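Narrative of activities, Objective 1.

The group set out to show that a structural description can be obtained from nothing but a protein's sequence at a throughput compatible with the screening campaign. Below is one input-output pair from the validation batch, recorded exactly as produced.
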Amino acid sequence: MRFVNAQEIDGALTLPALVAAMETAHTRARIEIEDGFLGSEGAHYFVRHAVDRGRLMGSKLITSFPGNLGGDLPAVQSVRGVRRDERAPARRARRNRTHDLAHCR
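Output recorded for this entry:
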């Protein structure tokens, strides 16, 4: 994990750049999201599909076994696949794009 200090943030982020990025993000088409839930109280399977037309599409698969809490096996695991639209203009890569699928609503 990389920690970012205040000086790095101040050097990379300016208020005008932040406002411009937020205005751009709020004028694009809304991201399409569908969720699927399977399983029972003791074993959950959750799938989130998302499409940001012209930019990205992907899915996140999550398994949850609440009975594994405190034991030797993980209670929650997930995997995700994200594919960029090759026709979209190239953008600077970001290390963590989780918000694109997990926090869109």
